[in-house]
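General statements about sequence and structure are easier to judge against a single worked case. No coordinates are needed to read the tokens, only the vocabulary itself. The sequence in question and its structure tokens are set out directly beneath this paragraph.
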Amino acid sequence: MREKSHRMEKVNMMLKKEISDIITHEYEAGKENFITISVVDTKADLSQADIYVSALKNEDQIVEELNKESGHIRYILGKRIRIKKTPKLIFKKDIYKLNF
């Protein structure tokens, strides 16, 4: 696998920040639960972004709800950022989580 370019790292960071903000301020699940986006991995052609999410409560349910709302989140995201193409958002359970 190729190493991510500086541009893609910037895109991933921007998406992470904006999606976190959207979830926190636009959705009840984000207000009632502590939801964290740990990693955003966007394909080089901007067709898809895998977003790894963790939550304190009901993590599987949160991921399912976010995937159902991904089209609306993508719409809001497209209004907030200037990017050639707003990627399709795929929310996944955080695989990078550390177990203590």
Notes: The two ends are 30 Å apart (CA to CA). The chain has one domain: 6-93. The mean pLDDT is 87.
